[in-house]
Amino acid sequence: MESRFAIENRIWNDAESLPRDQLRALQVERLRDCVARVAQVPFYKEAFAREKVTPDAIQSLDDLRRLPFTTKADLREHYPLGFLAVPREKVVRIHGSSGTTGRPTFVAYTKDDLALWSDLCARFLVSGGLRPEHTVHIAFGYGLFTGGFGLHYGVERVGATVVPVSSGNTPRQIMLMQDLGAQVLVSTPSYALQIAEVARAQGLDPRELPLEFAHFGGEPWTQDMGERIERELGLMAFNNYGLSEVIGPGVSGDCAARDGMHIQEDHFIVECLDPDSLEPVAEGEYGELVFTAMTKQAMPIIRYRTRDIAALNASPCPCGRTTVRMSRIVGRTDDMLIIRGVNLFPSQIEEALLRVEGVAPQYQILIERPGALDVVTVRVEMRPEVFSDKMSQMQALRERIDREIQVVAGIHVNVELVEPQSIERTPGKAKRVLDLRNT
Ligand code: DLL
Questions:
Q1: pLDDT digits (tens, 9 = 90+) for 131-166
Q2: Which residue has the least CA distance to atom 16 on ligand 1?
Q3: What DSSP assignment string belongs to 353-410?
Q4: Cβ of 72 below 6 Å from ligand 1
Q5: 365 and 324 co-located in one domain
Q6: What is the Å distance from ligand 1's center to 249 Cα?
Q7: Co-location of 284 and 417 in the same domain
């Protein structure tokens, strides 16, 4: 019989496979302790007073619903560190969210928080094949972004070798990978594509790089995109998810079965809610993920609205972990486009494009409003070998893409084919959506 696992099934910490009733009891205890600690934070103090919540009010997980939500706007309002739940001198590290404009949102860590964070990252790294004998090439930025340092300490915790390359200068990254023999790549999935592209431009077959595994996170990627990257670089890709406000990477990650990311529920309580009614959606339905980080000391957070859309799966996993799994992120509530009444996520466009031979997995979605209605243009790069001057060929390709998007997303869009290499590459998170409606 074919194994259900892509690789050997390993579990780092017994806490990942606690019986569900024990896990629930632990969550209630930790939530109660968390409520007591955050009662010192002015934002929560006021909200608890309004709702008449005290730590004793937390008797079961249902009582979570009595607690207030926290949003990005709340964090901004208490800039820079108004959500600290410990004296300032206990803080040993500050990171920032990846917002590219304006002030970042800061998140703080105590010494114990850093130890916890390393352990959480070690868990998903090990479930995705990391062993002490591996060398890991980290191409995430280290500057305020949580990706670099989070994974860095996770890899060290496992005892593997870290090469902390950070982002940028792809030819140098390729040289380092070759010379140091990295078997494991840590980056965004879009940066992995760029590595493959630059390698090819150097006359190198990307499959000849020593990479065997990759841990991708920080941005959404479809399964088709993952398969494309795996083929191009000759590696096996694992997904991991997190966000700065909750801890950074380490909130959830793929196991050896690669059928959903296990949420580290002994530290984070997850809810999946309808973003409008804020009521729970049925299991398996898509909704907004909301996380409570119960055990962090410096900045615990209650019911943080991530804006990330995914579905939960509570069925038992063959790997033996007892934690709930989340699907890939299909979009963000703030990325969801409503085009002539139809909901459209960038991931649907990606899925459609990857079905079409001859296009590169490099695309951008432009939204404009020339009149009363929104107009969507999908700009997509052609592969060098199909780029041609023949109008009829290009027209046929455009029609093919439009048809695939129609099948996946149910709407027609404008398709603009552009030359190879003309869409900007970024070393970090790819910018797929350009909203030009208010410019
Ligand atoms: O991106 C933390 C992280 C770093 C996770 C490295 C994994 C690896 P932020 O910069 O605060 O933190 O951005 C968080 O990125 O709300 C998602 O929208 C998106 N995101 C992160 N991981 C994934 C993933 C880090 N695996 C935001 N799939 C989140 C889809 C992801 N989206």
A1: 999 999 999 999 999 999 999 999 999 999 999 999
A2: 243
A3: HTTSTTEEEEEEEEEE-SSSS-EEEEEEEEPTTT--S-HHHHHHHHHHHHHHHHHHHS
A4: no
A5: no
A6: 7
A7: no
